[in-house]
Design brief:
alpha+beta; NADH Oxidase; 6-stranded antiparallel sheet; 7 helices; about 15% strand; globular; binds flavin mononucleotide
Length: about 240
Amino acid sequence: MKVWNFNNELKQLFVDYHYASINDPIYTSTQAYKHLERIPKPIAGDVRFSLDYSLDQDNLFENALMTRHSWPYKFPNNVTIDVDFLSKFCQLAFIGNDKTGRTYPSGGAQYYVNIYLLLNESKVCEKLVKHNVYQLDMDSQQIVGLNFTKWEEIQEAYIPKASVETAQMAIALSVNLHHVSEKYTDISYKLIQQEAGHIGQNIQLVSNYMNLKSLPLGGFYDLKLSEIIGNNEAVLYTFLLG
Ligand SMILES: Cc1cc2nc3c(=O)[nH]c(=O)nc-3n(C[C@H](O)[C@H](O)[C@H](O)COP(=O)(O)O)c2cc1C
């Protein structure tokens, strides 16, 4: 069995593995994945219990879970995105006010995954768009403007065009691949994907709770999105919202 050797300084295998699975416009024609219907695979076994449960309509938590969906359509833009909206969204989905840790778990509480908000300047409160690419600073509980990139250019990083054209904002989850293996060395790549999954679930549930539609995406051009957020980071996962 071949394992990743983190004794060597470069961790090159790990970085190569990541970049071998990116989307890029020059590969798009070969990256056309044909539709594959999921065929349920029965599980054999005689000890079975049926899991009957009906949603408690009055419970907001149950509602947020049970009505969670991805939105691969034009976004309805039913909410006003301003500082108050983003404050509530970020506190619930990520920060958790002054609780110990955050509202999502992270291997060894290292919190390697960074969170960026990309705002569509024509669909959010104008006070927010002197800059429209923000990084979330969890420690100061602020969003920090990094640059202004026209939504027209941000759209180039996204493959589902009808979605990105109508989105009010995007969220990108990214890491510096050269710094994530300090604690967990060989298993670090797996851990950052797991952390991103937790954050993604929070994004969808909090969006749903706050009447915002969301679309999780593997369909983005990695290098273009990384260039927009800067900081020499690789984007792991992104969401469109509106
Ligand atoms: C990792 C991941 C990547 C996804 N990428 C895309 C995508 O590129 N385009 C898209 O339209 N939907 C994407 N989706 C959404 C799925 O199509 C959706 O979750 C699935 O159809 C189930 O629907 P539901 O989320 O509404 O239950 C992605 C979901 C996940 C978890």
